[in-house]
Amino acid sequence: MSYFERLKAKWDVKSNLQLFIIFVVFAITGSSSVKVAKPLMDFLGIHLSSFDNIFLGSLIYWTIRILIVFPIYQILLLFFGILFFQFKFFWDFEKKILSKMGFKRFLKD
Known about the structure:
The structure is a single chain. By secondary structure, the protein is an all-alpha fold. It has one domain (3-106). Helices cover 72% and strands 0% of the residues. It contains 4 helices and no strands. It has helices at 3-11, 16-44, 57-83, 87-100. The chain is elongated and about 55 Å long.
């Protein structure tokens, strides 16, 4: 059984086209979330150069950036899932990921 066949079985995906669409949505979402985070951080006045004089400033900056990108990614994943008619897959995916992170009590079916 190939990797793609195992992935289709794990995600309960019916066709190769649906699997391709899911990959496209993940790619678009990842790129878009990083692009959206930059102007948001600029708007908030968070720049890497602002952390130059702070011990571990670079680490603090990238931690803040990841914390900003993460919720943007989650929202865009659902948005692009809707645009590509894969909302159910991505909503189930989101619930699984967020429940593993400890947000299960906020996710009611």
